[in-house]
Design a protein that fits this description.
heterodimer; A: 445 residues; alpha/beta; Aspartate Aminotransferase, domain 1; Aspartate Aminotransferase, domain 2; 2 domains; seven-stranded mixed sheet; four-stranded antiparallel sheet; 38% helix; 14% strand; globular; B: 479 residues; 12 strands
Amino acid sequence: MGYCPNTPDDIREMLAVIGAGSVEELFSSIPADLRARSFDLPPGMSELELTRHMKEKAAACGADIVPFIGGGIYDHFIPAAVDHLASRAEFYTAYTPYQPECAQGTLQALYEYQSTICRLTGMEASNASLYDGGTAVAEAALMSLRITERHKVILDASVNPLHREIVSGYLHSLSAEAVQVEPKGCTSDLDRLMAFIDGETAAVIVQSPDFFGNVQDFRALAQKAHEHEALLIVSCYPIALGLVASPGEMGADIAVGEGQSLGNPVSFGGPYFGFIATRKRFIRNLPGRIVGETIDHQARRGFVLTLQAREQHIKRHKATSNICSNQSLCALRGLIFCAALGKKGFEELALLNYDKAQYAKSVLASVKGVDLLTGGATFNEFTLSLPWDASEVVQRILEKGVAAGVPLGRYYQGMEKALLVTVTEKRSKDEIDRLAVLLEEALWS
Amino acid sequence: MELIFEKSVSGRCGVRVPLSDVPKAPPLSEALRRQEPVRLPEVSELDLVRHYTNLSRRNFSVDTNFYPLGSCTMKYNSKVNEDVAALFAGCHPVLALLPGGESLVQGPLSLVHGLERQLAEITGMDEVTTQPLAGAHGEMTGIMVIAAYHKARGDNKRKYVIVPDSSHGTNPASAAMAGYEIVTVPTAPYGDMDLDLYRKAMNEEVAAVMLTCPNTLGLFNPHIAEICAIAHEAGALTYYDGANLNAILGKVRPGDVGFDVIHVNLHKTFSTPHGGGGPGSGPIGVRGDLVRYLPTPRVVRREDGSFAVEDHPEGIGRVSDFFGNFGIMARAYAYITMLGREGLIEVSEHAVLNANYMMARLKEEYELPFDQTCMHECVFSASRQVEHGVHAIDVAKYLVDRGFHPPTVYFPLNVKEAIMIEPTETESRQTMDAFIEVMLEAARLARENPERLQEAPVTTPVGRLDETRAARAQQVCCE
């Protein structure tokens, strides 16, 4: 039942070696009054019954809905090689590479992952991944507090609202302050953000493309932050980095983001991975695992977990973070995804997303009563204004099997009519055209 | 082995991107555009497949090697769990948040709720949240819940969290991230937190005490109920680190004993694969008044039997983006459902039997600092081998040469030269016997030919690596 191989004969002989009369005797150090008062679980199932049970659940998971939803999690194509290679049990049934000689597979892959993240973000040092996008932004905020020894972070409200909630929770626990700056319409208010930066600011946190879809230029913001010795933290969408200027090019000190779009399925919210990368001078303030290159006594190249003096198993409560794992397998998927597409494919993929979204923008904005709220540059998401409550419209279109977008009223006061639409390379022209028809019907018939 | 970047040939491509079916759009402005394409490798699909297949062969793993890594519960990860978790790959989490979307995702919502109920029954807690993404993340979430509880009562004087010196490093680190100062209580000669010193450390400025039971020596602490009572008397709460839950499934429920908050590592006790260091999953369970402080959102069951996502306004907010690492949760749910009540009890019984067998057979050659019946793991010391110049790390590296993943070494910190062995319930006596033979051989070699151990490993692609050089060079990505 529990995948326990030992037979009654084995058990008898083992107990004889131990010198115990029964298995129960081995639990005799547990006082009787501490024994479980209940353990009310149903009997087990066979593999066949379990598979049927799970298929029933999976049949009701909305997998046939055509998604024009994103908001941080994206439905991208995943090449078959990603699944096949990440399903190698030598990768997925190993643990943290504590013994590097028998873990060079994982270690080298993570080194290649770190190199890939640095190249994507234009940064110099990446860790071996964090839990997810939201906690990565929060860890970046904490990192800025450590580096600057200040207690205030300025948070652009056009950063993903789920991520902002997580950042606020983390900072609140440490009695640090998160000042949120509301957007101007559907665009970051860069002038106000700059006006808030002062000598007590640890960092400014912004996102591009932001939650409304805008691709932004943060060069002036970076300069202003640096004048006050504050850091610029840029949260980014890795697929967009095939086309848009990297956080490094924008002058960011820390680049973070949700890595899901790189080869990880949407899978009802996880597992995904967060990435974080920075300038080399801040490497000792990075949270989590880092893999470094070294050699053995015969000068053969090898890889090890390095700079561990930052981590909880050595520093305990003085560690840079409590994190004691990474999302290795998800990061591995990200790495294989990037390598499978390669230099040319990655750029083409980004362009395809861009072109499809631009097409969708023009088609949807020409529906009667619909306007574009993100008038500037966007990547594969944009925000529309509808003539009335976007929630009702989305619900009506959802009944036709299409998720038209994310209504923004839930996240921003006064934006009940705003709809965030996402178009990845997987959405065909026909699907986009159909969305326009469904939108028109939902609004006017 | 070469890096994937070193195999790159300009102009070569792997996976083909689909052709566009829409018109070309006007380009982004120069200022917003990336100046050069990302320098990703240019390799064929076969190059790619061979590279990562060959890399995987440079790993030890549960599927290829016995992996008795103490405290990590490296049990077998059944294949059916991989398959059933993949059934949900295409389910977008944002669907659940759309108006009218809940009805489309009843399957996964019922799974989240079902797993929470299973874990509540297994641990004896009232409610569980699956949101935390790893054990340490669960610890931090649990301590944030405790902080919210004290704060809501206007009890603002509590600024300390007590941990034993033998605790996992994550305990103090998590409590520090949740804003607390740490008080460390030493271990008494009998192997558990010193009760007298604990009593002295407990007062009305303490928010919580964090404990692992069985402790990191693999011993069951018979005083845990008393430890809980002392904390509660002072108005503090009790936190149970579920790292070692595999030992007590069906035998002890932390909630019954008096713990207020618990985290569970699905990747240990509930058989989800460790993934080379993650993803894990660290749900937390709480009792009584603490339920209201759990993170938002909650998956609830309505009276008509359907499932809904609800905001949890008094809670500590959000600790991860959605409902937790769903793919991992699906595997754990499948494991618990398939094993059922009897199967889970069998797990703890066989885990404890295997560990005691290992202990009985090795204690003649290896120093056993706490010689008593252990739970799911046992901790030896290589102190006798040190007399011959052989350290725990040398024994570990020799095991690698003989095809075994080493036990955890140098943890817990309160045992010098610690060797911590956790066989888990899924290993057969024959596998353990083979491991034991090599351990005994290592003890003999330590006396007769210590160099053989000191130069190990010699069968791996690289020998012992220069960690100091790595830390100094800080070469963490290729140029």
